[in-house]
Each structure stands twice: as structure tokens, then as C-alpha cells.
Design a protein that fits this description.
elongated, three-stranded antiparallel β-sheet, 19 helices, alpha+beta, about 15% strand, single chain
């Protein structure tokens, strides 16, 4: 069935010195601790480690007294041993399989806890490629055999193992609350994820859920089902009253992040945001439209999408701003004309000050009459459609305190999008300089220097023959690096796709 080299059954002894009768006995429950490993190792010192792991297994299952330890202590000691000795991981899997096979323990919970331990181990460490086929067969045999108990958890163990091979396994040991839940058979929890505009999504997070799973679930609800679409969104971990915003790698385990954040701030949050806007907008899904509308609206109201000309804007530009204001009013499901106070809230302040308040109200009121026939959803969709024509639409904006490049006047605004890094004048938002994504070799964050409150981001530009470094100082350094990395990954994926498609398909991209 597999090429795992088990110890010669005639030489395997339990603590009581009773010899095993055959290989089948090696993988069957025993009431006595083993003194030697089940798998034959060339390094005899591993027998002691194997004995320790087996005692941990028996203690967790209730077949040995805990002797002052807690179940959490025992699980952590087992996981720690598997972390320190990679070769012992197969041994641990075999030991647990042994103890749940033909389990004849006098402890009622022994077998159930053994399966729970296998569930935990499979979430943290992969087995070897040699053991993998046997381990999967063992789990699938239980899943497919209606006469056996534990079909559900065997299926969950198999899913954990597949996830561990795909994403590398959990990193942080489970906390007391998570462990208690797992022992009690609760392998998931409801986790709040906030979409733009404060839209709440309470998602079912399993032991091995990663950030990509969360992204996919919300994308499906928004009517998106292609991997290319999933790549455009990011989950952010937020602590310290929104001051610390950390973008998650798509392979990060959500419950690892939860454990990490709970130690820092019990009021942590997860945000869901779109970062890349290469796919065209779609307007048939209400959640999709609302989420995107809520994300771009704050940046629009800060004036980040508008370039402020040195001369008075044209009548056409004023009418466009008025229409966008009327659509915002209708998006709130308002059927009455806006007030002077509301009008001020709908217009970027840099533009609002250019006309009298009553003039703005009169123009917006005209457009409001035209929007009354729209639903709130249609008003949001139209707003997005109009805004998508603006040059900086689809950008992530950052406020840069200083820049080492003398050609870039700072402080300034940095807009990161598919066209690269666009540095904009802080006041007028006119372009100062643009760095193409193709020029970027790498990015890294640096701690704040003495006397400085903001960290630095170093961006290496150029090619293999010649490189320069541009240093930016800003508060959101880590977020900037992750956003740039996401754009770079998307660029490489698009390039790989072009290289692998047949010529007839390339023209369609």
C-alpha cells in the first residue's frame, strides 16, 4: 500500500516488554506506551522523541494521566516536536492512526479524541510523499465505509491535509478557546468581515481557511467566479483603531491571523477591498455595485480623482460634478430635493469652493429631477460608470511625506494602479511623475529612523544591468508594498497567460 518502512514487528516492544506478533499489530490500538518508533529510523536517538510523541497522543486521548498538564499543553508539545523534527511527522501520523484503529480503550472519549488530534495534526503538518497515499487511503476508507464511525471527521482530516499540502499548514499553535472548540467537535467559527461602507459579512471560518477562501466566498456572492477576478481583491487585518492596516497574503490562515491580532487588539477587524481594476465593471449584481460604490466614494469626495485646473473649470465639468452629486443623493434612496448641507457633502471641497452654495444647489436639483426614475442601485451603477472614465479611477491612494527623488516634489499623493506609480501634486492632483510597473524590481519596508515618526519604503528600479533606489516615507508602508506586489503578480500572470495561449487567443486579450 505504501513504502513506509515499519520496524520489524518481532523487535517492537511496548513499555511492558510484550512483543508484537505482526505488522497488523503495529497499526492497532495499544494500552501501553511504546519505547521505540513505529517507523524504522537510522538515527536511534529518534526513539526517545517517538516515545514522547506517543505519550502525548495517549495523554490527549485520555489513555495516560495528564500529570498536571492540560490538553493544550499536550497538543502544543506534540506540534512542537513535529516542528523540531520533520522526520517525526510521519511517525506521529502513524501513531494516531494506530490508536484509532480497533480502539479498545476503557475511556469512552479515547477514539473520538484521537480523531480530533489527527484533525489538528493534519491542519499543521504535511506528511511525506511516501506516507501520503496510505494516509489518504486510510481516511477515505473510513469516509466510504458506512459501518465505521467518524466518517465526518475523517473527511475533514482529508480536507485539512489537502489544504496543508496546498498552503503549507497552520503556523501558530491553537489558543485555548480554539482547542476547546475543536475537542468539542466545533471546527469553525463565525468571523466578521467588513466590506466598504460598513457592509457586514459573517463568514464561516474553518480551521484551515485561508484569505483566498474568504475572497472567493465574497466574490461568488458578487457574481464573480473566475480566478482572475479573485486576484483583484485583498483581505486586510486592521488593529489599533484602523491605524495598523496589514494586507494578508492569500495563503495566510485566517485563524493564525486571529490568534496574532487578539494578542494585540481585541477589537481587531478584517476588511475586504478591491486593489486591481483590470476587469471591466459589471452592474447586474447589487452587492458588487454597492461594494465598489462604497469603496471609491470616499476617494472621490477627497477630490483624488479630480485634477484641479489653474483656470476656472468649464461649465461641462461643473455639470458633471453636479450629476455625480445628484446620483449620490439618489443612491441614498432620497426622493426629495437635496438641502444646502447635503449638497456640500456630495462635492469635493476643492471644487465646492469655486461656486456659490445656491448655484450648486440649483444645478444639482435639475439633475436630481432626472434621477428620480432610477432605483438606488441604478444610481450607484451610473455613478461608477461615470467615475470609471476618470484617469485615476482604480487607484489605491497614499499620502507620501517625503521622496528621495528630487524630481518628485513632496509631500505628494501617490496613486498606484495598472499604469504604475503615479505621483500627484498634493494640492492640484496634477501628475508629477510616473514609474511603470515594469521598472520595479523590488520593494521593502524600513523602520522609522531616529527622530522620524513614519517608516520608509525602498523601491528598487531598473533592470539587471542598472538599478536605482527611490525611498518614500509614509505611514502605510506595508500596505503600499503589498498593493505594489499584487499589481506585479497580476502583471506576471497576464504575461504568462499571453505566452501560453495560442496565437488566435492572444488577440482577444
Amino acid at each position: 500500500m505504501c513504502d513506509v518502512h515499519y520496524r520489524d514487528p518481532n523487535k517492537l516492544k511496548s513499555k511492558k516488554g510484550i512483543e508484537s506478533k505482526g505488522v497488523e499489530d503495529i497499526l492497532k490500538f495499544t494500552k501501553s506506551p511504546i519505547q521505540e518508533s513505529l517507523i524504522e529510523f537510522t538515527d536511534s536517538s529518534l526513539n526517545k522523541v517517538a516515545s514522547e510523541t506517543f505519550q502525548a497522543v495517549m495523554k490527549f486521548m485520555g489513555d495516560l494521566p495528564l500529570k498536571g498538564q492540560t490538553e493544550l499543553d499536550v497538543v502544543c508539545s506534540l506540534l512542537k516536536l513535529c516542528g523540531e523534527y520533520e522526520v517525526i511527522r510521519d511517525e506521529a501520523y502513524c501513531q494516531i492512526m494506530k490508536q484509532v484503529t480497533d480502539n479498545s480503550s476503557t475511556k469512552m472519549d479515547s477514539c473520538r479524541k484521537g480523531w480530533r488530534l489527527l484533525y489538528i495534526l493534519s491542519a499543521y503538518y504535511r506528511c511525506s510523499e511516501v506516507l501520503k497515499p496510505y494516509l489518504l487511503w486510510f481516511l477515505q476508507d473510513v469516509c466510504n465505509n458506512p459501518t465505521l464511525h467518524f466518517q465526518g471527521i475523517a473527511r475533514s482530516c482529508e480536507q485539512n491535509l489537502q489544504k496543508t499540502f496546498q498552503f503549507g499548514g497552520r503556523c501558530g499553535f491553537p489558543g485555548n478557546m480554539e482547542l476547546k472548540a475543536m475537542v468539542a467537535g466545533r471546527s469553525s467559527k463565525r468571523q466578521l468581515v467588513l466590506l466598504p461602507g460598513g457592509i457586514e459579512k459573517h463568514l464561516k471560518i474553518k480551521t484551515c481557511s485561508v484569505a483566498l477562501d474568504v475572497i472567493e466566498e465574497i466574490c461568488y456572492e458578487m457574481g464573480l467566479d473566475r480566478p482572475e477576478a479573485f486576484n483583484e481583491y485583498i483581505i486586510f487585518a486592521v488593529t489599533n483603531q484602523n491605524h495598523n492596516v496589514r494586507p494578508l497574503n492569500k495563503k495566510e490562515y485566517i485563524l493564525d491571523v486571529v490568534t496574532e491580532m487578539e494578542q494585540v487588539d481585541s477589537n481587531y477587524m478584517f476588511w475586504y477591498r478591491r486593489v486591481i481594476w483590470s476587469h471591466p465593471l459589471k452592474f447586474d449584481n447589487e452587492l458588487y455595485v454597492t461594494m465598489h460604490y462604497n469603496q471609491v466614494l470616499p476617494d472621490y469626495l477627497k477630490g483624488l480623482f479630480n485634477t484641479l485646473p489653474s483656470v476656472q473649470p468649464t461649465e461641462q465639468q461643473f455639470q458633471q460634478v453636479s450629476k455625480l452629486a445628484a446620483l449620490q443623493h439618489r443612491a441614498k434612496d432620497s426622493i426629495y430635493l437635496p438641502t444646502l448641507r447635503e449638497v456640500q457633502d456630495y462635492i469635493p471641497p476643492q471644487l465646492y469652493c469655486l461656486l456659490e452654495a445656491q448655484t450648486w444647489l440649483d444645478m444639482i436639483s435639475q439633475h436630481t429631477q432626472q434621477t428620480l426614475a432610477l432605483s438606488a442601485h441604478q444610481a450607484r451603477a451610473q455613478f461608477l460608470g461615470l467615475l470609471s472614465a476618470f484617469p485615476m479611477f482604480g487607484s489605491s491612494f497614499f499620502y507620501v511625506q517625503s521622496c528621495s527623488n528630487n524630481a518628485i516634489v513632496s509631500p505628494c499623493i501617490l496613486a498606484v494602479n495598472q499604469n504604475g506609480l503615479n505621483f500627484l501634486n498634493k494640492e492640484t492632483h496634477e501628475p508629477i511623475a510616473t514609474i511603470s510597473l515594469k521598472e520595479i524590481q523590488s520593494t521593502r519596508t524600513q523602520r522609522p529612523s531616529a527622530g522620524s515618526s513614519y517608516p520608509y519604503v525602498e523601491i528598487m528600479l531598473g533592470d539587471l544591468m542598472s538599478q536605482t533606489v527611490t525611498q518614500l516615507q509614509l505611514e502605510q508602508g506595508l500596505e503600499l508594498c503589498r498593493v505594489i506586489a499584487t499589481h506585479m503578480e497580476n502583471l506576471l500572470l497576464a504575461r504568462e497567460k499571453r505566452l501560453t495561449l495560442p496565437p488566435s487567443e492572444i488577440t482577444l486579450l
